[in-house]
Design goal:
Strand order of the largest sheet of chain A: 1-2
Oligomer: homodimer
Order of helices and strands of chain A: HHHEEHHHH
Distance between the termini of chain A: 47 Å
Shape of chain A: elongated
Largest interface: A-B, 70 and 70 residues
Structural class of chain A: mainly alpha
Radius of gyration of chain A: 21 Å
Largest sheet of chain A: 2 strands, antiparallel
Number of helices of chain A: 7
Chain lengths: 175, 175
Amino acid sequence: MSLRHAILTALLERPSSGLELAGRFDRSIGYFWPASHQQIYRELARLEGDDLIAQLPQRPGRGSPKVYAVEDAGRQELADWVSGSDDPRPHRDALLVRMRAAAVIGSGPLDAELTRHLALRRRQLEEYLAIEARDFAVVEDEPARLQHAILKAGIGLEEFWIDWISRTLDELAAD
Amino acid sequence: MSLRHAILTALLERPSSGLELAGRFDRSIGYFWPASHQQIYRELARLEGDDLIAQLPQRPGRGSPKVYAVEDAGRQELADWVSGSDDPRPHRDALLVRMRAAAVIGSGPLDAELTRHLALRRRQLEEYLAIEARDFAVVEDEPARLQHAILKAGIGLEEFWIDWISRTLDELAAD
DNA sequence: AAGGCCATGTAAGTAGTTACATGATTGA
DNA sequence: TCAATCATGTAACTACTTACATGGCCTT
């Protein structure tokens, strides 16, 4: 149920339309809970059906956005969920499956795939570091500290993978 | 399609029944591609339908296991897949969503949840380190180096999270 | 008037989860 | 004989992905 609560969080920060939410997800919450516009529209419909959010008055008509805001019940629902808990989700990683398969049938050309992932991870790290430089340069009140911690999780993860891929490439080259 | 290829890999290592596979997944491939017995039975049926695996001759009858082995076509399929590529999957993390929500509505009692995750991560790390001590103490031929690299990914990930959670708890306590 | 973008959706399919069903074999 | 465990599955549901549909508005 995290998507639902991610959306409530985003709508509390700022009432938004579906497409606007999708755009905001792409550059913040989506880093650790990605969602396509299709998923978002569906969940918005459910949230509205459950009276946790409501459309702001807007001249209706085809082609005009539906802007949603969180109702009191929605804020309460989010508060309840925040104080709950979830186990970490199992991590599924096709690259590691591929390596395991290569260990069994004889390594195919894994170097190329590892190198490709290295580049992707580096690009993602750059993106995170740019956000950090832009948004967390100075002050740190309580909410900012939380948000910065989240970003540092993303940064640390990418750094870990970059390091691991580099080491692995070295080890495989040392044949 | 990684489950399918994870199963082919496991069956190449040793022909197995569905339940046996499920057990083996729990202590090796499942660390980075978990699967329940229901998923495994379904995928075995598909693999058999596609003639990539076949049942070893076994006295049939209710209650006796169906042991599968990989056919030539299955080995070929796996080899083809290994030389392909997949982007890293997006990482979905409810704990980070919770933190983000807490940043907006005022932090609930996140310490308890962080501490709980810390314990889970530490337990998982112990499990990995025990496997490393047992299986990778000495020699390192090519397949072993690959498998060790995979295990080190698991170890490094848990170490990263343990470090991140510890730091985050410190920062939140420093209020 | 044509192309691109804003905006909201439907449809179909795949993957994964949760709950339950059924029978065989084995050991207390 | 009863309970546990081995073993294979079905069913229903939720989440996510991919592909497509539809129309309005704005710019060239």
